[in-house]
Design brief:
664 residues; alpha/beta; GMP Synthetase, Chain A, domain 3; 21 helices
Length: 664
Amino acid sequence: MATGHTTHDDEALDRELAGLLSVERFDPPAEFRASATLNDPSVYAEADRDWQGWWASQAEKLHWFKKWDQVLDDSNPPFYKWFVGGKLNISYNCVDRHVEAGNGGRVAYHWHGEEGDERDITYADLHRDVQRFANALKDLGIKKGDVVGIYIGMIPEVAVAMLACARIGAVHNVVFGGFSAESVRERMEFSEAKALITVDGAARKGKIAAVKESVDAVMGDLPHLEHIIVVKAKGTECQMKDGRDVWFHEIMERAAPECPAEEMDAEDPLFVLYTSGSTAKPKGILHTTGGYLTGASATHRLVFDVKPESDVYWCCADVGWITGHSYIVYGPLSNGVTSVMWEGAPDYPHKGIWWELVERYKATIFYTAPTAIRACIKWGSEHPGKFDLSSLRLLGTVGEPINPKAWLWYHKVIGGGRCPIVDTWWQTETGAIMITPLPGITSTKPGSATQPFPGISVDVVDEREGKPIDEGQGLLVIKRPWPSMLRTLYKDDDRFVEVYWKKFGKETYLVGDAARRDKDGYYWVIGRIDDVVNVSGHRLSTAEVESAIVACESVAEAAVIGQHDEDTGQAITAFVTLQGDRQGTPEEEDLIRAGVAERIGKFARPKRIIFADDLPKTRSGKIMRRLLRDIAEGRALGDVTTLRDPTVMAALEEKIKAEHAAED
């Protein structure tokens, strides 16, 4: 048995967690507070007193070829500009300056493939490869301002590609590896990409997907796409089109070894990242150079309390999402930290693989999604219990609100009760974390993202007039500009204003989430404004009902939707997965309804409960409630290829058919 290995009897654990639900706050451990970079609460008042000066002090921690003339140009809201006149290069900040400081031998990424293959990439390795690939791009005619698509999974070449684009001033457009080739084409078309970097094949749970082959099937006639660069990742056979397709390793061999970093203006575009487009035309979120790196670097350094000399940091997101951009690539590399990069799923080749890797690489900081935590709860605490997790000193969550039960399980089973948890709220649009505990300062409440990051001003306001709500529920807004904010929607300024700034004016950013503020001023993000069920005039957030369901002892995970009901306007339908091998029974349904009635009220009880072995999730871990609505209401399903496991929907369809047959 490994040192630090902890075993839990799940029934005893359930009882312990039920007891912990009554604990209102968890203070930072004294030992953690003593060594934390930020441990004085006065930082909030200091940052609020001179918020532009605060952000300037964070920007000064980066390397600038030329310092800015003006911190913030707010003369044309909402088109704000930060660090006006400043010159820097993100690639230089993420690689060169660490090598020049004598840290080239430090590991940047411990990369681990799902079949057990591994590579350690040092900062010196990155410096070498990024320069060569930057020159290779230039050899293909890619220049400053050109858009380059990147469709690569979780292998080190994805970071090399992003940094090489940043080095020469090309704008990268990364597409999540789980999206279909049609989605890639759509994004390349919208952004008028000049080149696409992809792979021959990608591994996923023991199978190899022929990525280049699928790209070829849809990409042939895009007029702007001049080159497809292919990384030989898996040795998968693929066709190479003369004059268009080139191998990554071959152009690297031909490229010159040295490429000075381009001096970029602080407001030069860095990347465009498209939203999923599940409900409308995808939005191309445009981020620029100086402000984005300032936000990503400062939040990574302070929220995760990173110590570059000793920490091994692991963010379990995918580089294809904003979390991967900010907290796998740009934030960690700008701070010179060693990271873990994992290619695979959280349950392959076994359900303890994450914890095996924590033990293997002695990870100290771990950042994942509540959905993933709930999946681990369902699988059982015996899986993390097999491994030594004593190296961990800080945990984080991202992507959606976390229900208190999952927070407490994470705290107890993964953190051993000793690790602060930073429950972070932010968006693709914000570029960096906006609301979060500071682990050496903040007393946390399970389920609350707590307080805005220093220098950030958020509020909860009423829906009609935008008046502040001191205590209670309303719309979440951001009240002043911040450096890492999106600058516009790519080639669509009008839509940028319409979506984010029209409701309350051009100086108040509409987040699109509902939130409540409690009597202590803590923020509880509830979910998207449209994730609301109206039962007999009672407006309920789906997240609130889901949290009440998951608080039931036997429940691992739940997703709630609203369905039309003749009597109540809408009725609640809950899709529920149970812990372990438990089966859904009428008795379980009664317990769930009673639990919801106790925690919220009888009006919130689900009218329909559908037990499922799993829920449809994207590969980033988000539950696809849209698909659950379709299946519950008998509509034809759209594209399910982006799901982590498309077979989940087939199983649910069979379940609902059997339910209907039983009713007939």
